[in-house]
Design goal:
This protein is of the alpha/beta class. It is built from 14 helices and 18 strands. The chain folds into 2 domains: 10-71 and 344-449, Aspartate Aminotransferase, domain 1 (Alpha-Beta Complex); 76-338, 3-Layer(aba) Sandwich (Aspartate Aminotransferase, domain 2). A 7-stranded mixed beta sheet has the order 4-12-11-10-7-5-6, sandwiched between helices. A 4-stranded mixed beta sheet has the order 1-2-3-17. A 3-stranded antiparallel beta sheet has the order 15-16-18.
Length: 453
Amino acid sequence: MSTNEASPSNAEIERLLAIDRAHAWHPYTSTIDRDPVYPVRRARGCTLELMDGRPLIDGMASWWCVIHGYNHPLLNQAARDQLEQMAHLMFGGLTHAPAVGLVERLVRITPEPLQQVFLCDSGSVAVEVAMKMALQYQQAIGQRKRVRFLTLRSGYHGDTFHAMSVCDPVTGMHHLFNQVLPRQFFAPAPTPRFGEPCSDAEIAEFERLIETHRDEIAAVILEPIVQGAGGMRFYSAEYLQRVRALCDAHGVLLIADEIATGFGRTGELFACEHAGISPDIMTLGKALTGGYLTSAATLATDQVAHTISSAEPGAFMHGPTFMGNPLACAIANASIDLLLNPSTENRSSTGSATNQPVWQAKIAGIEQLLQSGLEQCLSLPGVAEVRVLGAIGVVEMKQPVAMREIQRRFVERGVWVRPFGRLVYLMPPFIISDEELRRLTAAVVEVLAEPAF
């Protein structure tokens, strides 16, 4: 990552860090006992350059959204072109080509019954929108007692209030806000793993809850196949199929939260495709703009949307100021086009011919290297399990990691890996090279092999 720009002095770096320590409140941190932060000067491809010149290979894709890497020329050009037209425009009573192009693309690539697209401005808001849609739908069909949600333990859906109410009640901060959070129903986290069948016993408690409380439940909300920030757990496609069938049997809507899993992360374009099911409502975010701008979308079937619109007050009651932002939409269009660039023939990582699209073959190659690189951790005494699906690699430890120390050790090895709890995981950009990925997995093995931190 070369440049002619003069490097900042140590004094300049320290001044920036001093202001950050004094005034910048970072996510999930204290303002008293501050976590260390690492100042980034620029980023390109899969590399972050710190202000002191050190390069770090990014294994996080900036919380999973920067799927094309940083500073991509096509996305940069889309941003520049749109800036020459307009950066923002209210979506109330007006429309524009970038938004129309985005909704057209999303309808085309998502499961077929999803025909209506509500553009919003963050993942948590997309979940709030989905839950409000479910509530308005049930009111519209005369089911006014259906005001609660059924979800899965070990799930995560965001940090706003209704989104937080369907996060795991232990890891999802419920104890801090339990006096004001809506009360929801929680089924056990799915026990059958990805690739395994789902027995009657393994779905029994979910089935009991939906049958017992069907008159109270507006919708089931879950992360299909991969439970992300709640535990990085991969579960059975058949479990998801059975959930879909139970929702249909009891007149309950199904919301698929694909904010973390959408746009290819699991090896399918959307994780629900592993099970061959379609939700009534789907949320998208994170990778939607390739990590350039915050933007999200909530999709619904015509049945859901038209039912809401046909009842009092005759409209869906939500409208973020920045929904349909032209700059975000233009970049999202470019990001989707870049991801789905078609290929009639590609070569897999083993060199054999395949009819997979380019993006899918790339994810398969990442999966293979994550598996071969991280499985070496299985011999380490502190490791409980290694699991890989698509471009997600997880090393689960037996005990929680010491966050500050393990972060420092990763930076010393020239990689950016940010664990949480007992999970050390990688979700790199899709453009990562084989060599960069090998360096990431090797750093994970080396750090976890060191004396306890």
